[in-house]
Design a protein that fits this description.
Two copies of one chain form a homodimer. The first copy, chain A, is mostly helical. The first copy, chain A, is built from five helices and three strands, in the order ααβααββα. A three-stranded antiparallel sheet of chain A has the order 1-3-2. In chain A, strand 2 and strand 3 form a beta hairpin. The longest helix of chain A is centred in the last third of the chain and has 33 residues. Chain A is globular. The N and C termini of chain A lie far apart (about 50 Å). The interface between A and B is large, with 62 and 62 residues. Chain A binds a DNA duplex through helix 3 and helix 4.
Chain lengths: ~120, ~120
DNA sequence: CAGCATCCGCTATGATACTG
DNA sequence: CAGTATCATAGCGGATGCTG
């Protein structure tokens, strides 16, 4: 059996919603390179709030995409890493990242063209 | 020059926001298979409202990812198709779609495990 | 058919303060 | 360090009605 993202009742949609989340994408991108601690993630993802990072990590953990490892040091140490499932997704997500970083200038140009043409005013 | 999605001030982030939009992803998936009219898109994307579809298509058009072609029939006919830029993105998006549709059951299972383990109650 | 304008509730997100 | 809890708010997105 295979899901269908076009069906609003298909669980696939939920998955897509998760994947189609800005913060999730960024976390997956970072963890793809190796495990990171909470504060490291927060520092590297510009603009994310502590609340959103926690929320995102919980969701990813619940989905079985990310592992959460607690080391009872003082103060406590928590490390996040990819599960095999998460790693399998990371490839596709990485492609999005690469695309965004290499084509954003085309988009910016297209927007300027659009805004200054007939549509404007 | 290449962007950096981790920088909140980089335009790449805007691109990511667009890509990380549920409706945009679904529209791109459908248009990747060929041009479609407004009502066809609306019918095929379960759960989307007319407002959201219009909004999504405008954004995609502005970003230079989608072409909008008006044929002055009666009643009017509007066809949406992919631009080359959009097509280049569709590949990456398609990978996400495939992943979602093939792995959603793993995620559902992971969620159940998570919900019924120590985290619950 | 394709789309715009309006009203409006919901919830997603950010800011802030507190804990172990 | 790694969270949890609470509050306030912007804007997403649905429902409805109108147009060419």
């Amino acid at each position: 059996m295979r899901g269908n993202v076009l069906d609003p009742n298909c669980p696939t949609r939920k998955v897509l919603d998760r994947v189609a989340d800005k913060w999730s994408v960024l976390v997956l991108i970072l963890l793809a390179d190796g495990p990171l601690r909470f504060s490291q993630l927060k520092r590297q993802i510009g603009g994310i709030s502590q609340k959103m990072l926690t929320q995102t990590l919980r969701k990813l953990e619940r989905d079985g995409l990310v592992n959460r490892t607690v080391t009872p040091t003082v103060p406590i140490t928590v490390e996040y890493s990819m599960t095999p499932l998460g790693r399998s997704l990371a490839g596709a997500v990485g492609a999005i990242r690469t695309w965004a970083e290499t084509n954003f200038d085309h988009i910016v140009t297209a927007q300027q063209t659009y805004d200054t043409s007939a549509q404007a005013g």
